[in-house]
Write a structure and sequence with these properties.
mainly alpha; 8 helices
């Protein structure tokens, strides 16, 4: 099965403006990635929907799917986006984009946490796989760095 987030990365063209739908998808995927990077299991649609339902909100599987791929209509439902922000324990402004530099600050903090976690994976692999050939270890490191760079390339240029 193809990861829709990976497919989204391939469609991003460096230097081209990113659509609001893809920007929201990028932010949501970064939130999902950081949960994993922090050593937790990935949140499933069911967990997210249940968390929103506890807040009196509903989220269909189809809507969630197009929100994380950026392929559908732009979701502007303030209550839903606020609920998602609360579920991930981040300021809702990150998803709403309504407070100046706050979304950029949160975005950079989340990206930093993700890169720190990826570096920990490299360090762990180096310690654990001590008897692995240097070429294999370099290949693992290159794959992790490539993944981190792909995530950075999908971010819009600061201006």
């Amino acid at each position: 099965m193809i990861d829709p987030r990976a497919a989204d990365d391939r469609r991003s063209i460096p230097g081209e403006p990113i659509s609001p739908q893809r920007e929201l998808a990028r932010k949501l995927n970064l939130l999902l990635d950081v949960v994993v990077a922090e050593g937790n299991t990935p949140h499933t649609y069911k967990q997210i929907a249940a968390g929103l339902q506890a807040r009196g909100l509903s989220l269909s599987r189809a809507r969630w799917a197009y929100m994380i791929t950026g392929d559908g209509p732009l979701v502007t439902d303030v209550d839903l986006l606020t609920g998602i922000g609360e579920f991930f324990r981040i300021p809702s402004e990150y998803l709403l984009g309504s407070d100046g530099d706050l979304p950029d600050r949160v975005d950079s903090q989340l990206a930093f946490v993700k890169s720190l976690r990826a570096q920990r994976v490299v360090n762990f692999a180096a310690r654990t796989l001590g008897d692995v050939s240097p070429e294999t270890l370099r290949s693992i490191t290159a794959l992790l760095e490539e993944d981190m760079q792909r995530g950075e390339a999908a971010r819009p240029a600061e201006g």
